[in-house]
Design brief:
25% strand; single chain; 17 strands; Quinone Oxidoreductase, Chain A, domain 1; Rossmann fold; alpha/beta; 2 domains
């Protein structure tokens, strides 16, 4: 089997990898239908995370379960979005059965531990990270608590939107949930990548009255508008904050979704939030350090972390299945899996929002 391996910044290769095997009786082997490159994969690709040896890549995937059993400083698999059809199940797996199309989160979960029961499956006591999905086959641990079946096998046209649920749509939804988006409220979205754009879609779905998307790129501005943005702010930094204050009559936003993860984006989010407002931060932090004293006087609520996608999957699947949302529109480039390196280049150069890969 061939899979994606990151050797060094900018050096992505598609080469021979070991076939995934059942390691624990709760595992599943998934044959990938579609996978993709994630914005978080670009951190190590750009050298922001150190790589000391070749690193398997890929954490976004969907595919067919073939078998189930009873900061990068060392090889770390990448990738976390997936869906597919169950082909085989073992005696320890009870929640899914042969022939079902399933979707799972980038963070596996037993869905029974105290953290899972509290709605934070991405902090499951037995969590493992999905990380080798840019390949034809994948091992998914904790299959019963991680995989959620769709009502039936979907059409090919639905695959991009179902794939998006596994990470970027679930993460955008969590950003809006953590930011306490309410009907009629004013929302600011910092970041115009796939997660930020789907944060816009999530805020609209939750009934926000005004959604201000921060974006400098015409194609992304257009999609943000399509997803429900009422205003576009192209400025950044202090100028962006001033623009937000102008648009909100000096008050600031009720809810801000931080979907980047840099010091600048976090400060922009905090400064754009009204006293008593909420920030949902889901951008993987790189170099973000906050002053406790400055934060103290803002009166803002901060809530974020790895999205508990598993909590939202049933609702999001239903929304896609009924045609109420189409998050798959963030995939504006489709490539064969063996051209994965071009997917990385296109996203790194901002020629694509998100690259979908077909084995």
């Amino acid at each position: 089997m061939k899979g994606t391996v990151l050797y060094a910044p900018g050096d992505v290769r598609f080469e021979e990898r070991p076939e995934p095997k059942i390691i624990k009786p709760t595992d599943a082997i998934v044959r990938i239908s579609v996978t993709c490159v994630c914005g978080s994969d670009l951190w190590p690709y750009r050298g922001a995370n150190p790589i000391t040896q070749p690193t398997p890549m890929g954490h976004e995937y969907c595919g067919i379960v073939e078998e189930v059993g009873s900061a990068v400083t060392q090889p770390t698999p990448m990738g976390h979005e997936y869906c597919g059809i169950v082909e085989e199940v073992g005696s320890a797996v009870k929640a899914v059965r042969r022939g079902q199309f399933v979707i799972g989160s980038f963070a596996t979960s037993d869905n029974t531990c105290p953290h899972c029961q509290y709605g934070y499956q991405s902090s499951c006591e037995h969590r493992e990270w999905i990380s080798t999905a840019q390949a034809p086959r994948l091992r998914v641990p904790l299959a019963d608590g991680t995989l959620v079946a769709t009502p039936d096998e979907p059409s090919d046209e639905l695959l991009p939107s179902l794939l998006a649920l596994s990470d970027v749509m679930g993460t955008g939804w969590f950003a809006a949930d953590a930011a306490n988006v309410k009907p009629g409220g004013t929302v600011v979205v910092v970041g115009d990548g796939a997660v930020g754009l789907l944060g816009v879609l999530s805020a609209r779905q939750m009934g926000a009255g005004r959604i201000i998307a921060m974006s400098r790129h015409e194609s992304r501005q257009k999609l943000a508008r399509e997803f429900g943005a009422t205003d576009i702010v192209a400025e950044r930094g202090d100028e962006a904050v001033d623009r937000i204050k102008d648009l909100t009559k000096g008050i600031g936003a009720d809810s801000v979704l931080e979907c980047v993860g840099t010091p600048e984006s976090m400060m922009q989010a905090i400064s754009s939030t009204r006293p008593g407002g909420h920030i949902g931060y889901v951008g993987v932090p790189h170099g973000v350090e906050l002053s406790g004293e400055k934060l103290f006087y803002t009166h803002v609520h901060l809530h974020g972390g790895p999205a508990p996608v598993r909590r939202f999957l049933p609702e999001l699947i239903d929304l896609v299945w009924k045609g109420k949302i189409n998050p798959g529109k963030v995939f504006d480039l489709t490539l064969p899996l063996d051209q994965v390196a071009e997917g990385y280049r296109a996203m790194d150069e901002r020629r694509a929002i998100k690259a979908l890969l077909r084995p």
